[in-house]
Amino acid sequence: MNILVTGGAGYIGSFIVRRLKEAGHNPIIFDNFSCGHREAVEGFTVYEADLVKNPDKILEVLKEEKIDGVIHMASFIQMGESFKNPGKYFNNNLIGAVNLFEAMREAGTKYLVFSSSAGVYGRVDTLPIDEDTPKKPENPYGETKLMIERMLHWYTTAGNLNYIAIRYFNAAGAALDGSLGEAHPAESHIIPLAIAAAQAGGEFTIFGDDYKTVDGTCVRDYIHVLDLAEAHVLAIEALAKGHESASYNAGTGVGFSNKQILEKVNEASGGKLKIKIGPRREGDVDALYASTGKIKNDLGWEPTHSDLDTIIGSAWKWHESHPNGFEK
User: Fold this and answer.
1) For range 73-100, the mean pLDDT
2) Which of 306, 29, 70, 16 is nearest to 169 (CA)?
């Protein structure tokens, strides 16, 4: 199939386009490169354009490339920034999505896999988190993801498209050989930040060690980016075979604590990371992890790279060989 990947030059998107090609599909990238990297998609067909500013270009690409399905990855993702500048997130994420869906409707492109987020759930009362857990986003970023899922319900009801929304937990890791990995303009994730601190022989602060968890530090569900890419390929193939619209969690069903993460990074560094305990951060909860039975049962998906050794080991290789990301 010819698959358009919006945001295909980003961290997760660049892994998806490679997995699509490996699976025999033809990935085509649509990206404005505000966050993505040209180096990550060398050798692929790329259209540099913006979902908000260039709606006519979306329709043109869908028709010219005879697109069978779309994997929609393009969005702003920083939760903290979304608090400070909600309009930026509502404008980019929501208007971009509407422009894409309208172009798909006009072009007759029926299949869509949507990059959603565990952020749609917010603070939860019970674990693990399954797909029916109440949705109570706690920041504008999560709100945009939930609003887009609601849009998709109505586009499906109108008969315009069928979709699968994949609600990511914490994407992590890199290519197993260290050739491709995570390089965000403003990094906020614990693993790359901890690796950067370790490689600089610096200090990393854990915010609170008195949570109700195995070692007192917060527990989160981490999914290797290779496993996440596989979920998207299975999803677009399922839609092409007639799968009904649905939403799925993509996690492992277990969690790793902040202390476990940092100890594994410290091990990779040869003991160079200094770990400090600081006060709790406002808004952090004890533990968040997914129920993954639905996606495993419906799509036959099984994460195979999401053990902590593989996540940290692959990320370490990437950051060690690319200390400045994609910069030469």
Assistant:
1) 94
2) 306
